[in-house]
Fold:
Amino acid sequence: MHIGLFGGTFNPVHIGHLRAALEVKEGFDLDEVILIPAALPPHKMPGDVADAADRLHMLNQALEDSPGLTISDVELKRSGPSYTIDTVQHFKHLLPEQSRIYLIMGMDAFLEIDTWKSYDELLLQIPFIIINRPKSGSAASGPGWKFMENFIASKISTDYVFSESKNCYRAKNKQPVYVFEVTSLDISSTRIRNLINKGRSIDYFVPQKVAEFINSKGLYL
Ligand code: ATP
Ligand code: MG
Structure:
């Protein structure tokens, strides 16, 4: 089994998440990409985060007809804030030993990796797949992959070397960090929450059922 773990707040889930998950699944020939909503996102202000149950419900609605894209509530069931290192351990124990597990994240998330709990251990334990994200990082030109190279060298380790053929950074005793280009969709949950707040439509940024649920519950007003 080849599995991708794709964590996030999903507050709410939008088509940027869905399209990225699908493209990584196809690009890496994964059997499954598991979307994992975080309980108390350690990097976020709790104020505008919808209830875990609502975020999970929206994910379920979004993925109703998506074979190979699934959801895990493991972080919601755990007490306290969600740490990716714990989630990775969970799936390593759960899945058959020969499974190949990848950690998927946008470049904006990766560029904060040095603030994550046990990030060096994470880099030892699991290969990463980093996807491009419009407007993440520096506002001037967007970060681009070059930005990532500088980040890795300055904040993580100078041992990493880019392998052109594999499209990944490799270092001795570390798992590879792949870079993977997905269709660039400049959509974020923040933007969706802001639209709702201004009384504007979020149609076509989220699956229709998700938009209906948000409207019916009056979320993010
Ligand atoms: P917020 O604006 O609240 O931070 P978000 O849109 O960034 O929401 P998250 O739940 O924070 O969504 O993101 C979960 C993961 O999905 C992160 O790794 C993030 O980089 C990635 N991601 C989110 N939106 C996109 C997108 N449009 N394209 C590619 N990756 C994305
Ligand atoms: Mg985000």
In short: Residues 106 and 133 are 6 Å apart (CA to CA). The two ends are 41 Å apart (CA to CA).
